[in-house]
Amino acid sequence: MPATNPKPAERLRLRLLSALAGTRRSMTTAELRDHVHEHFAEPVVIEAVYRNLTVLERRGDVRRCDGPGRDAYWTAAGTTARSGRSRRA
User: InterPro entries from the entry (predicted)?
Assistant: First the structure.
């Protein structure tokens, strides 16, 4: 099996999009990792989640939102979801 098999990565991206589509708020990278593990019984490292979120961001499927601290917050593109923890009102 080639090391760059696109199927597992694309499956993860679909699961991340599903998680974001199922909520009206933004989610952190860690929350998305936990969601994939809990709802799909698929453990995944946070680096893989972040990398695939950036791919989805480049495709225009997700947006990175402002949030407090160092956490990255994400929402599905085209939604008006905001983090309740946002620094801006």
Answer: WH-like_DNA-bd_sf, WH_DNA-bd_sf
